[in-house]
Write a structure and sequence with these properties.
By secondary structure, this protein is of the alpha+beta class. 55% of the residues lie in helices and 19% in strands. The chain has helices at residues 2-66, 82-116, 135-141, 152-157, 161-169, 209-251, 257-282, 294-302, 322-338, 370-375, 391-401; strands at 120-124, 130-133, 173-179, 182-195, 198-207, 290-293, 308-312, 317-320, 347-353, 356-362, 405-410, 416-423. Pfam families: HATPase_c, PAS_8.
């Protein structure tokens, strides 16, 4: 047994020696490879360290851009393809900075304009708290104090009664603050819009006192010119004919007196009608609304002026002031005849619409140019030689007194359409 064990040990030792001889070159190769790998790894690591720093810097600047800070830039002086990436990133930062600066400047300009405009501006959030109130709004509603954060409804409780009434009526409108010579006229407009997904309201209060005063003076000057012209046109021939009549009487030429007296009467009647029209326009009362059957109303109109009628539905009933509407439509239908339209081409159209009635007076005259269309509804504006400029203005006044509106437009093929929309 001992001999066998000894022989086994000897064989194992021999095999081990042979294996060691065979592995020796491989161990050297592995060792060399390990050394080379370590060197390569060190070189790669040395190259990757600044790249990792660059990537961290890029991530940091992107985070700054997201937060609205565009003041960062990156410096990269390594010779590699990453130079283009760094340059593009820096160019992006420069562009964002310039855009942000331009935006800030525009915001400053807008804020300066909003704060210094004479129009009082108040922005309300959904809870009706004031988000923004400019200087004019502070003076009008807050005694010069800041308005931001205050409850608008409570602010109105302390405002002038005219201001409260204007807001209580809802919508846009005009109101007067003060009395007698110390009064100011304002126009109120309110607009709703969505801001950051929530409904806000913008309130604008524009002072119109000075503008209306200027317009009032111009209107009075025009009224005086028109009245003076009309008075002179009538009084001059009346005075002349009266003198001529006296001469005819003195000479005993009585046969020519009836003609002179008839002319005097005609001019006096004209002057009387002229003054009556002005008085009617100046003293137009509030409409007295009552049910009106269109069929009967149109038949009544036909007894005074000729036209072709179209009423839909024929048995329609509206709530209007019949006397005022008749006055307006007679003026419009007479204007249509005076345009040179044949009686068969003067039409009155009455149609039911969703929110009321549309009444149209149509002719086949020469229509109106743009300048006349823009001014035809103004009081005392007329293109007629002896016109008073009150017919269309009176129709507009009556339509608006009913809560309606009136518009003029030229028709295809020639002619004019006067369209009046009345509620109900």
């Amino acid at each position: 047994m001992i001999a066998i064990a000894a022989a086994g040990i000897a064989a194992t030792a021999a095999a081990t020696a042979l294996l060691a001889q065979w592995l020796q070159p491989w161990a050297a190769a592995l060792l060399a490879a390990g050394v080379i790998g370590a060197l390569v790894g060190a070189v790669i690591w040395r190259a990757l360290v600044p790249m990792r720093a660059l990537f961290r810097a890029l991530a940091g600047t992107v985070a700054s851009y997201r937060d609205g800070d565009f003041s960062f830039g990156i410096t990269w002086d390594k010779a590699s393809d990453l130079v283009e990436l760094v340059d593009a990133h820096n160019a992006l930062g420069t562009a964002l900075r310039e855009q942000r600066l331009a935006l800030v400047q525009r915001e400053l300009l807008l804020d300066t304009m909003v704060q210094n405009t004479p129009v009082a501006m108040v922005l309300l959030d959904p809870s009706r708290r004031i988000v923004l109130g400019n200087l004019a709004a502070r003076r009008l509603l807050g005694n010069g104090k800041r308005l931001e954060g205050r409850d608008f409804d409570k602010l109105l409780d302390d405002a002038d009664a005219a201001v409260r009434d204007a807001f209580a009526r809802g919508g846009d409108g005009m109101f007067t603050v003060g009395k007698d010579d110390d009064e100011d006229i304002y126009h109120l407009s309110r607009r709703r819009f969505r801001l950051n997904g929530r409904v806000h309201e913008l309130v604008l209060l524009r002072q119109l006192t000075a503008e209306l005063r200027r317009q009032e003076v111009q209107t009075w000057k025009k009224v005086i010119r028109v009245i003076s012209h009309e008075l002179n046109n009538s009084l001059a021939p009346i005075a002349s004919l009266a003198h001529s009549g006296a001469e005819l009487l003195r000479r005993g030429q009585h046969e020519r007196l009836p003609s002179a007296l008839a002319t005097i009467e005609e001019r006096a009647r004209h002057l009387e009608g002229f003054i009556r029209d002005y008085a009617r326009f100046a003293k137009l009362p509030s409409p007295r609304l009552a049910p009106l059957e269109w069929r009967r109303f149109v038949a009544q109109l036909r007894t005074q002026v000729e036209f072709v009628a179209e009423v839909q539905p024929a048995d329609g009933i509206a709530r209007v002031d019949a006397a005022q509407l008749e006055q307006a439509l007679i003026n419009l239908l007479k204007n249509a005849h005076e345009s040179g339209t044949s009686p068969g081409d003067v039409r009155l159209s009455v149609r039911r619409i969703a929110d009321g009635w549309r009444i149209e007076v149509l002719d086949r005259g020469s229509g109106m140019n743009e300048a006349v269309l823009a001014n035809a509804l103004l009081p005392f504006y007329s293109t007629k030689r002896h016109g008073t400029g009150l017919g269309l203005a009176l129709a507009r006044e009556i339509a608006e007194a009913h809560g309606g509106r009136i518009a003029l437009l030229n028709r295809d093929g020639g002619g004019l359409c006067v369209s009046m929309v009345l509620p109900g």
